[in-house]
Amino acid sequence: MAKEIVLHPPLQIAEIEDLQAGDRVLFSGIIYTARDAAHRRLVGLLEAGEDLPFDIRGQVLYYTGPSPTPPGKVIGSAGPTTSCRMDPFTPILLNAGLKGMIGKGPRSKSVIDSMIKNRAVYFAAIGGAAVVIARSIREVKIIAYPELGPEAIRELKVENFPAIVAIDTNGNDLFKIEPQKYRID
Question: Where do the domains of the chain lie, and which CATH numbers do they carry?
């Protein structure tokens, strides 16, 4: 049976190893945004032996490119981006200590294998609910690559940011579970 868990990044292995595909999660604290262009730059830094613009160990990356910020808001719509676009870069970031990713859609076998090896979790956010998700974001600060516009890396301070465990540390994959074997209560 799915349960609801509150997580406060940076994530610790002990707290994420108990998560199971289908569990509901609420994030409170700091998470980071990064999409394709930012991933490419982060991996380039790691391959060059240089420091990243933030400590990735235990962190959660949210795959989003927020829309422009309306007056009086901290962020525009901030829905999840299709995660497979980050798959070529993800194992390298997992090896560097990344513990969680939030996006939409399934992941490749190489990413799942790397998640199992590195004890990491993939979370799904609800696509089409970008405005609702944005309500969980309390503060936003661009920390790297402002020239990338919506793809800049942002530090988000979130409160009760909703997600679902899509792939757990054992590789159980919500996208591959047969519907009759899985039920959200």
Answer: 4-181 (3.20.130.10)
